[in-house]
Amino acid sequence: MLTPEDINNLITAEREVFATKEDIGDVKERLSALTTSVDLYSSKADNYHKEMSVLIHRVDRVEEWIRQVADKVGITYKQ
To answer: Which of 13, 53, 70, 76 has its Cβ near the most Cβ atoms within 10 Å?
Structure first.
């Protein structure tokens, strides 16, 4: 069992063993900032993927038109 002296030694040790309310408050603030950053990045990544999906669809549609035109004018279309 720990004695009061043992507890005092732990508290006043060169390397702090216990987190203080201030330490936890700092961690909460940094975690909040990190969460905000991750949410922002996630939103940007989601928008990017949506835009790429639309772009891929457009390219596929244009490529199909090119194939149709190539067939009508008698040109071999190579990808």
So the answer is: 70
